[in-house]
Amino acid sequence: MNTLRSPKTVDELTRYYQLRWQILRKPWGQKPGSAQDDYEQQAIHKMVINDQGEVLVVGRLEQADKYQGKFRFMAVAEQARGQGLGQQIIKALELQASQLGMKEISLNAREQAATFNASYVVLPKG
Length: 126
Hints:
The protein has helices spanning about 10-25, 85-100, and strands at about 5, 45-50, 55-65, 70-75, 105, 120. It is α+β, with helices and mostly antiparallel strands. It has a six-stranded mixed sheet, with helices on both faces. The chain is globular and about 35 Å long.
């Protein structure tokens, strides 16, 4: 069974960042650690892990201004693609954004993630 939540331990956070790097930076020859930036501490992080503790999907929400946010560093492990796990992360982060008062969220994605490519999400009022 898969579990969606924020990383809870140093080990989970390490595996969270490892998947981000592996999917988003390693293919372009970038060094480990290159998938992290100065906004890590203030961002909201979500991941999906399986019963074996493997991190399958990761995503981050950062607040751009009072009413706008950004989904960043979305990554899905190859073995987890096509299962709707990325959508679960998006929905969880949308809920957090709504609770913070954000009205719009942007997400820029690579071509292989065409369903999310450069989309804007307008959150429901309430």
